[in-house]
Design goal:
Layout (H helix, E strand, L loop, with lengths): L18 H10 L12 H4 L8 H15 L1 E6 L5 E4 L6 H10 L3 H6 L1 H27 L6 H9 L7 H18 L7 H12 L24
Antiparallel strand pairs: 1-2
Helix pairs in contact: 1-3, 4-6, 6-7, 6-8, 8-9
Length: 219
Amino acid sequence: MAKHHVEQSPKLDFKNLDFVKFGEYLNEYSIVDKQGRYLHWSQLKWRVPSKEAENIWYAVKFRRDQAKKSTGLFDKNGNEFHFCIHDSLEPKLHKIVQLGAGKVAAIAGSQASGHVQQNYLVSSLLMEEAITSAQLEGAATTRADAKKMLEEELAPSTPDERMILNNYRLLRLADNRKQEPLTRDLMLEFHRIATHGVSENENIPGEFRCSNDIYTNRH
């Protein structure tokens, strides 16, 4: 059977690199895309503007090079194998550790395994809190379906699932930025995530209301 050809990624050319644009791409792009996918060049180039694809790839590759970890393993040409662990990968690694009955932990080392397990535990607790909070607010979905959506990064199919996803993203953001002061911009970011796609009135996610039309009534 013929081997599937893997397209080689472009090599970084410093002579023709637009460093101003490169800096902008570094601010905009990360190790993974917005859906948490670790894309190869052959996949990334179709998801970005074609004229900017190579420069965007250089920025992504640079970020990956900064985050890569050494394995101590080399190919026949002396090139070392490296790897990156990003946030969306950690729950999957924890499952591998469980399925491997500790064998992966022995390979990766107890310190790496402990870090993965700690992050997975936090992620699991945030999922549980997001689901419970949404259900208390009236979300009609089963815990099993909601957890599957979050763990497998599935798109929400109902307004109730959207509420749960928003809760989870809000909790993740709060956890990641818990050391920062609670500024106006951060509060608006919390509001944008919490109300995205679920607001039943004319509120605009991430913005303060422009009027003071508030009505109350006795029941």
